Amino acid sequence: MFVKVGDFAPIVNPGIIGMSQLAKIFPLPVVQQVLENLGKYTCRLRELPNEMMVYFPMMMAFNRDDSASETLRRLLEGHESVFGRRTERVTGKGGISNARIRVGSEPLKQVFEKLCRPLVQDQTAFSHHDGLRLTALDGVLLNVPDTQRNSDFFGRPTNQTETVGSYPKCRAVALVECGTHAVFATKIGRYLDSEVKLAKDILPSLNENMLVIADRLFFGWELFNAVRDTGAKILWRVKEVDRDKFELGERLPDGSYPAIYHAPSSLVSRSPKGTVFNSIPVRVCSYNVEGAKKEDIHIVTTLQDHERSPATKLAELYMQRWEIELVFREMKVELNKNAAALRSGTPDLILQELYGLLMTHYAIRSLIYEAASRGKLDPDVISFKGTVRAILRKSQKGGDFPP
User: Alpha-carbon distance 295 to 230, whole Å?
Assistant: First the structure.
């Protein structure tokens, strides 16, 4: 039966969505342990204890239109089992801001890094190729509020006439599980930080059971070699097959070429006899895409077996790279309502807000994956936008903390 994307909505117990879904994916004991390790665990009774304020930036991401007080009200209502008590009094904007500053961004960063992992447990056609988990690497720019502190910290673009941009910008690089859209590693930096530089900090999240797909911006000897050293396999686009970089062998039956990728001459280490030690065996294939504009695509991969991974399959796999673009759209358009900028006025609260956004997206994607698994569906057929709407409807009814 033909299934159109968005035809399905998640069918799960309403009691585990909303705030309770966040608490299910990011359990309170883990949050408390992280806060204790950082010396930020709440030791005295507060209206806004630190462990509760770790969840506040996540709740901010659920509904961009809510004020800080309304977000806090959603957080408080009906979830005594999560925090152990119910507070009738909703603290004002100033008190909320002070509580956010007190907590900072580091607890959310550590909880994200501790708990966000690829979701698929078993190998499936939508998540794996030849036993390798499909992952995508890419970066995104985000506008932040135009305050002096944000501008000084993050920086902003300028054009040829030195006219500055309207907003300061932060840059983030992420690793995404293609089959579920789950972000399982990220590095957030300043506007002038290159995506290649930021990508190096998330390489420890890779392993030998992954295939990393990336666009041509990331291609370069240093990063390519660093990814390969993790054991992960590589499928990257390049601008062109430069004969100075690639030594091509005889054409294979599938139309691809075995090749040797040589390091730049400035980095090459040679023996007295001139033997080049810095080289990587790869496979190269090229194809073109016809549409409004014909485009030539060149791909370099460390997948050597042309029978198990023929050129046509490589072209199909490279298209999975666009899954990460959909992830950025889900966060910027569906969760952040395509707003001109994020909301926080200082760099540390921007980082806190961003980790809250990433963690909320991860919790929603976890819910979608759970629903898809129960229905034996590809998660792509479940509408992200529809899921967010369902969560907002159910969260207004409260709900019990899951066992």
Answer: 32
CA–CA dist 142, 146 (Å, integer): 12
**Residue that is written with structure tokens 């994307």 in the block:** 5
Half-sphere exposure of 162 (CA within 13 A, CB side): 0
DSSP secondary structure code for residue 55 in this structure: H
Kindly list the distances between the CA atom of residue 358 and the CA atoms of 175, 176, 178, 331, in Å, as whole numbers in the listed order.
Answer: 12, 11, 16, 8
Query: How far apart are alpha carbons 207 and 212 in whole angstroms?
Result: 10
Q: At what angle do helices 384-395 and 50-62 cross, to 10 degrees?
A: 130
DSSP 390: H
Q: What pLDDT tens digit does each residue of the chain (403 aa) get?
A: 333 334 444 444 333 456 778 888 999 999 999 999 999 987 666 678 898 899 999 999 988 888 998 888 888 774 565 666 566 667 788 899 999 999 999 999 999 999 999 999 888 889 999 999 999 999 999 999 999 999 999 999 887 554 566 899 999 999 999 999 999 999 999 999 999 999 999 999 999 999 999 999 999 999 999 999 999 999 999 999 988 889 999 999 999 999 999 988 776 655 444 444 588 999 999 999 887 678 899 999 999 999 999 999 999 999 999 999 999 999 999 999 999 999 999 999 999 999 999 999 999 999 999 999 998 999 999 999 999 888 777 655 544 434 3
Q: What are the distances in angstroms from CA 339 to CA 86, 105, 228?
A: 32, 22, 38
Contacts of 27 by beta carbon, 8 Å cutoff, 6+ apart: none
Q: Is 276 helix (H, G, I), strand (E, B) or coil?
A: strand
Residue 356 contacts by C-beta under 8 Å, 6 or more apart in sequence? 56, 57, 58, 59, 60, 61, 108
In 219-346, where does DSSP find H-type helix?
Answer: 221-229, 311-318, 322-329
pTM for this predicted structure: 0.89
Q: How many Cα neighbours within 13 Å face the side chain of 149? A: 7
Which of these, 53, 106, 43, 99, lies nearest to 75 by C-alpha position? Answer: 53
Q: With contact defined as beta carbons under 8 Å apart, do 307 and 122 qualify?
A: no
Residues 385 and 346: their CA atoms lie apart, in Å, by 29
Q: How many CB atoms are closer than 10 A to CB 344?
A: 23
